[in-house]
Amino acid sequence: MEDVTIMFGWLGFFAAAFFSWYYYLQARTKERTLLIEKGADASNFYAKKPERRGFRFSFPWLKLGLLLVGIAFGLMFGFVMTHAVLPNSLRSIDEPFVFGSTVLFGGFGMILAHFTDKKKAQ
């Protein structure tokens, strides 16, 4: 019974995504048709957009990637230190140690991302 619920959940998700895309295209076509009927030029729909000078937003994939790699190294380091290196008498500090190493290595990843982005900008 649980498998059927999961299947219908995924089916509903993909149906919603498909119908959203379909109605977007349908509305865009209707809008363009109305503009052409009113005498607007259709060539500007398909023309390349001019490049804007000045501020351009681009998602910082490099920074996000280095942050996530730093967090992953922090988690791995914390788990290795608590389960392989620390003796059983110190196992009570394993959760704060894992959290601290995750934050520490995540910070190292952000610092590394800052310096690599600074080099790229120059």
From TrEMBL:
This protein's record includes keyword Transmembrane: yes
UniProt key word Transport: no
Transmembrane segments: 6-25, 61-85, 97-116
Domain DUF6249: start-end pairs: 7-118
Pfam families in UniProt: DUF6249
InterPro entries the UniProt entry points to: DUF6249
Keywords, alphabetical: Membrane, Transmembrane, Transmembrane helix
Protein name in the entry: DUF6249 domain-containing protein
Taxonomy of the source species: Bacteria, Pseudomonadati, Bacteroidota, Bacteroidia, Marinilabiliales
